[in-house]
TrEMBL record:
This is Nucleotidyltransferase with HDIG domain. InterPro entries: Cyclic_di-GMP/3'3'-cGAMP_PDE, GAF, GAF-like_dom_sf, HD/PDEase_dom, HD_GYP_dom, HDIG_dom. Gene3D superfamilies: 3.30.450.40, Hypothetical protein af1432. Residues 343-535 form the HD-GYP domain. CDD domains: HDc.
């Protein structure tokens, strides 16, 4: 055997393999590297075809990622289950394998579909720990010259170079993916800081989880007061969303991943969901899943989860950590929202109590605040007001007479008609109320507008600012109709209660004078819907 004068002791036949190693190690991506590798394998061995196959542990298959020579186009992308194809012989042995006649081996798979006898030579691709990454193989027609030991050595050297290059490329790709993940997480943290709604935070966080993980679907579910699962957020592939929604709606009791998280209070991972002991029998579309608990005041109130609906996939520890981090952020938002809701409820109760205390000073209007609030909100619903507008109207109803704290009790309880001076003193209460609330930062302008302007008239003859028509704030126009109606149908020491029909007729008569005609029409519709008015 001749020797390379430049490389003493190295057989001449191995020099191309070393040159190939250099080319392979210089390629930038794993895809380019394998394309270069199979081309060089043909040159080195003089084979008719060459394949590079990678082992996919999630599906336990070999995938042909690159091919050169005969039948190249039909080979790339093909998946070989365990036991199908001679490359599995290489995977199982972890060593170079030579098969002189492929037609005599039952494990042979012909990519072309034609059982033509070949000679097969395959070498393993190994990671630094000796684990098989895949196989590099070449074929030559059996009637041609057989592969020699030099060619086997050359292919082995090339396979070793490809293994190093692929491991390096994979490590680089993982590092780049980790960098992208860190960048997206930093961006997510900044975005979540600007959001307050748990639903908004959940939607943004779960979408980021899906994007980063490559899983098919992500979801957030919460438990209702009956302990049933309520879907809050869903992100990912539309068909996967539909399948998830169908399963959860079919049986909303907490089972599967959700049930285990709620039972244990810990994150659950089901890398192979269909063989997982706690799987849902009807969740046949889930191959891999993981889920983490959402907590409020230490109680598990929901679950955030990721599911792969196409195939089994590995679940690295970094993904579990990422899921736990996102779950913590959503939990913080839920906890904050719960605290805010409790604060709102407490404030609401305090305002309602204040309104009832104010009406008690009149001595004869008990229940007026609650009744007029209910009427005003029914009217607001008829007019299609938003939730925020309804809250402002509700608070305005509670506080509409707060300025009467500055009015003498004798004047408030006077049974007879008021003198001009007394009437002016009474009317002053709306300005006092507006001024009192102006000092409170938590009271919105819209609430103060109800307090100040609920005695304005559509024709401009009201008080305190003699506003007219649409210049009167809408919430004040709505409240004034409900307020006057309740006053008419309620008994007072100085009058009997009117019938609903008589009060409705009075509202009609004053439409366009005292009241907004459109608001009166809507209010009459409410009375009809409630069965209180005919025609």
């Amino acid at each position: 055997m001749t020797r390379d004068p430049l490389l003493p002791g190295l057989p001449e036949t191995l020099r191309p393999a070393l040159e190939a190693q250099t080319l392979v190690l210089l390629t930038q991506s794993s895809g380019d590297m394998f394309e270069q590798c199979v081309t060089l394998a043909l040159e080195i061995t003089g084979a008719g075809s060459a394949l590079a196959l990678l082992y996919r542990p999630d599906t336990d298959e070999l995938e042909i990622v690159a091919a050169a020579g005969e039948h190249r186009q039909v080979a790339v992308g093909r998946h070989l289950p365990r036991g199908q194809g001679l490359a599995w012989r290489v995977v199982q042995s972890g060593q170079a394998t030579l098969i002189p006649r492929t037609d005599r081996d039952p494990q042979t798979v012909y990519v072309s579909g034609q059982p033509i006898p070949h000679t097969y030579l395959g070498v393993p691709l190994l990671d630094p720990d000796g684990q098989v990454l895949g196989v590099l193989s070449v074929n030559r027609l059996a009637q041609d010259t057989q592969f020699g030991s030099g060619e086997a050595q050359a292919l082995t050297l090339l396979g070793q170079a490809a293994s190093v290059a692929y491991s390096r490329a994979r490590a680089l790709e993982e590092a780049q993916a980790a960098a992208r993940q860190f960048e997206q997480l930093a961006q997510l943290s900044a975005e979540l800081a600007d959001l307050s709604s748990p639903e908004e935070i959940g939607q943004r966080a779960v979408q980021t989880l899906v994007d980063l993980s490559g899983f098919t679907v992500g979801a957030v579910v919460v438990l209702d007061s009956m302990g049933q699962v309520q879907l809050s957020v869903l992100a990912g592939h539309p068909e996967g969303q539909d399948a998830t929604r169908r399963v959860l709606s079919a049986r909303p009791s907490p089972t599967g991943l959700i049930g285990e998280v709620l039972r244990t209070g810990r994150t659950q991972v089901a890398a192979d969901y269909q063989s997982w002991s706690a799987r849902r029998a009807d969740a046949t579309h889930v191959f891999t899943g993981l889920a983490a608990p959402l907590r409020v005041d230490g109680r598990v109130v929901g679950v955030v989860m990721l599911m792969h609906l196409v195939r089994r996939v590995p679940v690295p520890g970094s993904l579990v950590t990422l899921l736990d981090t996102v779950a913590q952020r959503i939990s913080q938002a839920l906890d904050r929202a719960d605290s805010v809701e409790h604060l709102h409820a407490t404030r609401e109760a305090a305002l309602r109590t204040l309104g009832r205390m104010l009406e008690s000073r009149d001595g004869d209007t008990f229940g007026h605040t609650d009744r007029v609030t209910t009427l005003a909100l029914r009217l607001a619903g008829q007019l299609g007001l938003s939730d925020a507008q309804r809250q402002h109207l509700r608070w305005g109803a509670y506080l509409h007479d707060i300025g009467k704290v500055a009015v003498d009790d004798r004047l408030l309880r006077k049974a007879g008609p008021l003198t001009p001076v007394e009437r002016e003193a009474m009317q002053w209460h709306v300005e006092v109320g507006d001024q009192l609330l102006r000092e409170e930062m938590f009271v919105p302008r819209e609430v103060r507008e109800v307090v100040r302007h609920h005695h304005e008239r559509w024709d401009g003859g009201g008080y305190p600012d003699r506003l007219s028509g649409p210049d009167i704030p809408l919430l004040a126009r709505i409240f004034s109709v409900a307020d006057v109606f309740d006053a008419l149908v309620s008994a007072r020491p100085y009058k009997l209660a009117w019938s609903v029909q008589a009060a409705a007729d009075a509202l009609r008569e004053q439409a366009g004078r005292q009241f907004d005609p459109a608001v009166v029409d809507a209010f009459l519709d409410v009375l009809r819907e409630d069965g209180l008015l005919n025609g």
